[in-house]
Specification:
It contains 15 helices and 15 strands. The protein is α/β, with parallel strands linked by helices. The chain folds into two domains: about 170 residues, Rossmann fold (3-Layer(aba) Sandwich), CATH 3.40.50; about 200 residues, Rossmann fold, CATH 3.40.50.1260. The strands form three sheets. The chain has a six-stranded parallel β-sheet with strand order 3-4-2-1-5-6, sandwiched between helices. A six-stranded parallel β-sheet has the order 9-8-7-13-14-15, with helices on both faces. Strands 11-10-12 form a three-stranded antiparallel β-sheet. Strand 7, helix 8 and strand 8 form a beta-alpha-beta unit. Helix 1 packs across helix 2. About 50% of the residues are buried. Bound molecules: adenosine-5'-diphosphate and magnesium ion (MG). The site of adenosine-5'-diphosphate has 19 residues, from strand 12 and helix 13. Adenosine-5'-diphosphate (ADP) binds next to strand 12 and helix 13.
């Protein structure tokens, strides 16, 4: 199923290997790394390349410097941190292209590691300028992409360089992400259940449409549920409803029925009179939402019903929280999904920045089969799209 070359398929000893990683880590105002998850996620690939005697050139973006060098977005703090994790020196380059960088690359010995400065300090990165891609390509003999989180973008470092450098192979993180997501969508063990939530229907239309052709049951929660309920003629009070998507929601409900997919909507809610962390949660009697209230989470009956469906599933894909989990009083619905997944012996795949944050809040991360590191990329994958950064890699 995974038809691209991986780093296990290629010869890297003594070669200059350009490895695109995702070191887009959060920094505090002093430039200290506040969460190194993304650096750690790339370690297996980095270790493999170093142990195979590659001359390793690591490249990443950080933040949105918009094509200009800006010390606020420098990758410099990552070099000592990575060095500590790896237990070997990591040199920091002053830029990602140019004569100075070329000099540093040609001085590399087998097994050495050089971290290039932020790719997005050059406008050519996000614009995928051929000239910029050529300068990066000139640094190396072999290309590796382990940055799943940016695979949905056709940038110079994800699409331009691999078009010029062969072989172009997937790193372990990239491979793992694609295998889990791909397996779930292409050959799911059934029952296959998707849990879709989050704020807006408009963000997830394509995901829902794609999954309707694959899943047995679709559980809908979060802010988008109220646009669906409105489409069914339910009173939604002050809840988030995208008026211009009600018709589309009705079409999706009809499509689910035609395809024999069971699409479930909340039957009760936790409501509040305002969108606030201090608001007192009010449980609804049934599905109807009072005119003066807004639903901020699924209610206890829905929690129980959704958990029961998950318990019976063999494959579960989850994207989007069931409520405003950032407010403790409205986190229970989302937590219930995480708990049900943790208790069920199924393939569980979680994608989406906020959903992953919610699962991490539960401490149940280790009970999930796969937690995707790429919010946008995993969403586009679930939409059934080809990711440019994957398409660009050499076929097996
Ligand atoms: P993900 O990042 O996992 O793809 P989204 O970005 O689509 O998820 O949605 C997450 C956001 O949806 C959260 O900030 C959450 O507060 C919000 N949300 C969930 N339920 C509701 C609701 N009932 N009303 C308003 N916002 C909601
Ligand atoms: Mg989000």
């Amino acid at each position: 199923m995974f038809n691209k070359l991986t780093i296990d398929d290629i010869e890297v000893s003594g070669k200059r290997v350009f490895c695109r990683v995702d070191f887009n880590v959060p920094l505090d105002e002093n430039g200290a790394i506040t969460d190194d998850t993304r650096i750690r996620a790339a370690l297996p690939t980095i270790r493999k390349l170093v142990d195979s005697n590659a001359k390793l050139i690591l490249a990443s973006h950080l933040g949105r410097p918009k094509g200009e060098a800006n010390p606020k977005y420098s990758l410099a703090p990552v070099a000592p941190h990575l060095s500590e994790l790896l237990g070997r020196p990591v040199a920091m380059a002053p830029d990602c292209i140019g004569p100075q960088v070329e000099g540093l690359v040609s001085a590399l010995n087998d097994g050495d590691v050089l971290l290039l400065e932020n790719l997005r300090f050059h406008i050519g990165e996000e614009k995928n300028h051929e000239d910029f891609a050529r300068q990066l390509a000139a640094l190396c003999d072999v290309y590796v992409n382990d940055a799943f989180g940016t695979a949905h973008r056709a940038h110079a470092s994800t699409a331009g360089v691999p078009a010029l450098v062969r072989p172009a192979a997937a790193g372990y993180l990239m491979q793992k992400e694609l295998q889990y997501l791909g397996q779930a969508l292409a050959e799911p063990q059934r029952p296959f259940v998707a849990v879709i939530g989050g704020a807006k229907v408009s963000d997830k239309i394509l995901v829902i449409e794609n999954l309707l052709g694959k899943v047995d049951t679709l559980l809908i929660g979060g802010g988008m549920a109220y646009t669906f309920l409105r489409a069914r003629g339910v009173a939604t009070g002050k809840s988030l409803v995208e008026e211009d998507r009600v018709e589309l929601a009705a079409e999706l409900l009809a499509k689910a029925q035609q395809r024999g997919v069971e699409l479930m909507l909340p039957e009760d809610h936790l409501m509040a009179d305002s969108f606030s962390a201090e608001a007192t949660p009010v449980a609804s009697d049934g599905v109807t939402i009072d005119d003066s209230l807004m639903a901020l989470d699924i209610g206890p009956k829905t929690r129980e019903r959704y958990a029961r469906v998950i318990t019976g599933a063999r494959t579960v894909v989850w994207n989007g929280p069931m409520g405003v989990f950032e407010f403790n009083a409205f986190a229970e619905g989302t937590l219930a999904i995480a708990r049900a997944l943790a208790e069920t012996d199924c393939l569980s795949i979680i994608g989406g920045g906020d959903s992953v944050a919610a699962v991490n809040k539960t401490g149940l991360q280790d009970k999930m089969t796969h937690i995707s590191t790429g919010g946008g990329a995993s969403l586009e994958f679930l939409e059934g799209k080809q990711l440019p950064g994957v398409v660009a890699l050499s076929d097996r």
